[in-house]
Structures are given as C-alpha cells and as structure tokens.
Amino acid sequence: MADALLVVLRKVAHSLGQGALERIGSEVVEVAPILTDFEHSMKQIQGELSILHAFIGQVGTHKDGDKAFDAWLDQVRDVAHEVEDIVDEYAYLTVQAVDTGSFLKRKFHQIKNFASWQKLPTHISQVEARIQRLTEMRNRYGIVVGQLERSNVFKQPDQLCMSESAYLTDTSEVVGNIDEIGRLTQWLLEEKQDRTLISILGMGGLGKTTIASTVYKNQKIRRTFDCHAWVTLSQTYKAEEVLREFINQLIDQRESMASGFMTMSRMKLVDVIQSYLWDKKYLIVLDDVWDKDAWLFLNYAFVRNNCGSKVLITIRRKDVSSLAVDSYVIELRTLRYDESWELFCKKAFRASTDNVCPENLVSWAKKIVAKCQGLPLAIVIIGSILSYRELEEQVWKFFCNQLTWQLANNPELNWISSVLNLSLNDLPSYLRSCFLYCSLYPEDYNIRRKQISKLWIAEGLVEERGDGTTMEEVAECYLMELIQRSLLQVTERNAWGRVKTFLMHDLVREVTLIIAKREKFGIAYGDTDSKIFKKDHWVALVLQNFMLRNLTLMRSLGIIEVQQSYVVELWNSLAEMPNLSRLLISTCDINEILNLKALKPIPTLKLFWLAGKLEGGILPLIFSDKLTQLKLDWSGLKKDPISSFSRMINLVDLWLFGAYVGEQLTFCRGWFPKLKSLQLADMEHLNWIEIEDGTMTNLHLLEFAGLRNLKALPGGIKYLRTLHQMFLIDMSIEFIKRLHGSDFHIVQHIPNIHNFDSSDSQTVHDVIFWPYLAKKFGPGAIKYASTKRGPSGS
C-alpha cells in the first residue's frame, strides 16, 4: 500500500535510534524549556508511526476502481510526506545541536535554529491530528483497508480473460519465437521415461501463454499423451480449486460430480489425481506460476511413474525456472523489429489485402511499433484497437502522441497495464520503492549497477541488515531480485558475468511512472530530463549528511560545483568516512580558486580526481601514498608536480589535463614503478619532457593530447620497454613529422601508435577516456567532464 510511508518509517527508526533523543536532551535542552516537550512529542509520534507501520504491513492490494479508497490513500501519502519533512528537519537540527566544535560555535547554532525547534512540535501535532482524522474518515465512509478475504480481494476476472485469450490465439497469427516453439516441440516429443519439467520464462506480455498454447494444441503432441490438462494458477490460487480443475479436465465431469469431489479435502484431492495418473503418460500445463511453493505442492499430485510424462510451466521469475532441471528452460526475449512490424500489421490491418500498412500511416505506425519495444501483448492489443480506427493520419498521430495517457485511461488498454501491474503488485515493499525509482530515468536509459545502488542508499530505500553486510551488498541483492523477476533487462555484464548496466522496458516504465505519480513517489519530466528531487533540496540533503558526518559507509563520492567557502567543512566530513576510496571534487566553474594548503591527506583514498584552480599554482600536500589513480584538471600549477607525485609508489594511472602552466616535466629514475597509464593534455606552454632510464618501468599506455608547444618526441620514451600503446592527439605538425622521420627510432618498439588531429580528438576520448570515467564514476561523469575541461579542451 503506502510504500512511501514505509521508507519514512525506516528513516524515523534510523534518526531516533541509538540514543538520539538522549543526545538532544543533554545538548540542546539549555536552549529553551520547550525542547523537553518536543522530546516527549517525538516519542509519541514514534510510537504512533510504529503502530502505523505494523498496520500497513497487514494491508493487502486494494481493489482497482475503488475511488473512495484511492482518495483516502492519497491523504495517507500526503501525511507520509509531511512526516518525512519533519524527520529530515529533526535530523538536521539534531546534528547541529551536538556539533563538536567550540562552545561559542555550538551556542551560535542553537540560537540560530531556535525558531526551527519551536515549529517542530506544532508540525508534529498537526500530523497527529491528520492521522486521527484519517482514521475517522475511514470509519465514516466504510473504507476497507485491512487484509480481506483473499477470494474477494484478489479475484481478477481480467486476468482470466487474458489467459483465455492467449490460449485461444490462432496459431497462424503467432509471429516470432520459431526456434523456441521448435525446441519446446522437440522436448515434448522426446522419448524419456522420467517425468520432465519444462519452464517458459519471461516478463509479463512476452507471449509465454501463447507459445505454451501453440504446442499444447498441436495434435501430434496431444496424440503422444494419454491425457492432458491446462490450468492457470495466478498469484492467489487456492490449492483446492486448482486440484478440482485438474480433476474436471482429466476425469469425466459427470463422474467427478458423482464422486463428491467438490467437498473433498486438499489431501484427498491429491490422492484422486495420483490414482488417476498412476499408469498414464500425461501432459500438464501450469500457466502463470508465481512461486516455488505452488509447484512443490502440486508436485505430489503429478506422480513420477516413468511413463514419459511432461509438465510445462510458464513463469515470470527466474528463481522459479530453476525447478526445471537439465536446462529445460526457454527464456523468451522481445521480438525483433521486423517481427514486431509483421505482428502489428496482422492485427491493425487485418481487413486489408496482405495486411499492408497504408502509405499515409507508415511513419506513425512505425513510431507506435517502436514504442512497444517488441512486447507481443502490447503490439497485439494496440494493433487490434487501431484496426477499428479510421485510416487517417490525424487519428493515428493523436493516438501515438497520447499513448501514455491512453495506457492510464483507456479501458481498451487495461490488459497491458493489468499484466504489467501483476508483477509490480507482487513486489515486497522494500523492492517496490526501488523499482519505482528506476522508472524516473529517461526511457531507453542504460542504468549502471554501481550508480543506482548508491542512489537507493542515499534516498533511504535500502534497509540495513546487520551481520556485517554492507548497504551496497543489500542494494545489489535488491537489483538482482528485480532482474530475477523479469522486471529489468540486463544490457551489459562484465567479464565475470556480473551485471554492469540494465534498463526498463518502455511500456513497463510508462505504467510504472503512472503509479509513481499517483502515489506521489516522483515525476519524470520529459524524455531526457528525469528528476527525483529539486536540485536545491538534493544539495541541502547532501550537506546535511556531511554535517555537515552520517555517511560513514560511503565508498565512492563525486561532488561538483564546490566553492572555497565550504572546503574546510567538506574535508573534515570526508575525513570521517573510513571506507572512502574514490573521490571526485570539482569547482563550480573554471575560475573558482581552491586553497587546500591547510588540509591533510585522506589516507583511505585510492582514486582522486580534482578539478579546479589551486591557489598560487602550488600543489597542496593532500595526496595519500595509497593513491592508485590521480587526475588533475586545469589546476594552474606553476612548479613541476612530478617530483611531488613520485613518492606515490602505488600510482597506476596519472592524468594531467591543463594542470601545469610550466615548460618542463621530468620523470627521474626509480619513480612510478607501478604506473601503467600516463595522459598529459592541454598544457600549452610545455615544450620539454625528460624521461630517465629506469622510470615508469611498467607503463603500458602513453597519451599526449593538445601539447602544441612540444616539437619533438621525448628521447627517453625509448627506455619505456613495456609501452604497448601510444596516442597522439592534436599535436603540432613539426612533432608529427619528426615522429615519422628522425625520431622514429625512439618509438619503434611500441606496437600500437595512433595519431589523430584536432578533428579526431573527441573520437579518441569517446573510445578511451570517457568509457573509463563512466566505469569509475557512472555516466554522469562524462557529461560533467565534457563541460568542465575549459577552453583548451573544448
């Protein structure tokens, strides 16, 4: 039900736990006597919300179309948002109040925030009053929100109609999945004594039922078996009803009625099916199996009699498909575009000769088909609806542009949203909010696993499990479960098979966005600008967490638009993050100057990217010896920084982009023993690079970009025997001439040398540098870096 409120409740638990109220009492009570009353009010609302939490846990999925319930639920969500505001304000003021700074500083914060403390008790009272009114309103209008009788709440006639419709599909209209149908046919006809369990896996609407019915109705297959039955389980099947349906299909109906099957217990019904199937070769189809328990129970009824029987199940969850042993699993994919077009034309233009799309509708028809992204259910339903519309361009244009609205409001499209909603409604609350969050990304957006995990954690959507499990590991478990449920589609895996990127099907996203908006979870604006919070709210939240020290499990962090005014507080907060290993800091613009001289190194850092001018052009002592990757952008350094970096014996990657305004760089013997990648770019005054024998003994990649004043190859490159690739981008004509002439002997040992002029430099970065940034920091790093390199790199 109100999953947003569950998130708030978790935030309350975190904020009020571990003696937070006691700290408030001891540190802030001196500000004003009103804080004592405030502490009491916070305890009261904590108790109230705890009871609400337990109450909400008992509430099942509400009936579609219950307008009174929907209106009441909207009010509940409003209260949830009010509570969240109170919790955020409370957490912020709490940290301010227990600031470990000087006495005067602590008093200043207490006086400054006194007005805010005064408002909180009033806000709490108002929320408590609203909760009371919601209870009264529920009783006054007879709104049912508790756990109802399952047969009343969960009965979904539309779902039965959808299964029957797919089952009744004419096999001549089936498009695509030829290989899958062939494999299923082969498995069902193969001679094998033991009973075989076969599963068809895929997201809702992919055509699992249609494919199953195609092979089930195949007369050659039917003749192979002594008896057969087809039953749809759905999410809320009743075991007795399912067993009786099997008996009705397997045994003569008059005999079943006469034998009193309607009043038999569950176990007696199992006995009847076992007895009947004992010596028969049977074919059973279980359509729409949602969990393993359903099969584990029915498994007792379907005897293993060594007659070569087959059981075919259709499922949405990959963990359930594992029931089928010996790789008897068909995992469906979306249709190819040519298959989608063929299926759409069969449905939309069935009245025309050869199902041909009229010329005036081709562009809009193609847009509609593309929107369906190969989902057969959507293609069939939308195509069927349009087959009754006028073949006029304006009519089809209007339908295409209004497709999102149509999904939410057109009863003819209820099947699509109903099928997709079944998977969403099956989600537990801790997964539901995370899934809604994914819908706020732009359509066709490849979401990175590492990025989404951090965002879920930052938004409070991930629960702490204790037992040494990190929040990142919990978030990854969430993601894997959503993928297992066929709700998210993996688009890229790393070399070890681990998920790197994934996306949400367009129509799944459209339906989920409708829910996210209705539940006031979030709104996506446009196709390329999805927003979850306003920027100022997000910045305030980040600064609050820094205070300005709550992110103790943070491992990777990127902060842009940094100003000198809060560098010290920021650095103090970073020092309180014992797990921080990757850090990106960028100034608000290229002219902002950072003074970092008084700051100490952060010893846990392994990757550090600093973008911004440094005061006086002097390199501060903020770089840890443990760094393996370092990048400096437009730092304006006046003194050769290489000697300062030389003590970093663990450095693997070094990038200097417009970081040095001097003329010479020197790499001395014994320096950088582990360095594998060196990139020097956009340093307009650099005219000499000294490389001594015995330096950078493991260098694999060397890149010079935009060093227009460097006229000749550094002679010491000949000492870099491990160098495998060299990229030269936008270098001077004289430099390139000498490369191919008098200086070639310096680089003749390098197997791969790539030379690009200024027009190709962006291509090189697209191929090499930007993918690396995206891998480390997520796609946002590319957008950031491409706009922050400054005039010489643009």
From TrEMBL:
GO terms for biological process: defense response to bacterium; innate immune response-activating signaling pathway; plant-type hypersensitive response. SUPFAM superfamilies: L domain-like, P-loop containing nucleoside triphosphate hydrolases. Residues 440-510 form the Disease resistance protein winged helix domain. It comes from the Eukaryota. Residues 180-352 form the NB-ARC domain. It holds the Pfam family NB-ARC. GO terms for molecular function: ADP binding. Keywords: Leucine-rich repeat, Nucleotide-binding, Plant defense, Repeat. Residues 20-98 form the Disease resistance N-terminal domain. Belongs to the disease resistance NB-LRR family. This is Disease resistance protein RPM1-like. It comes from Paspalum notatum var. saurae.
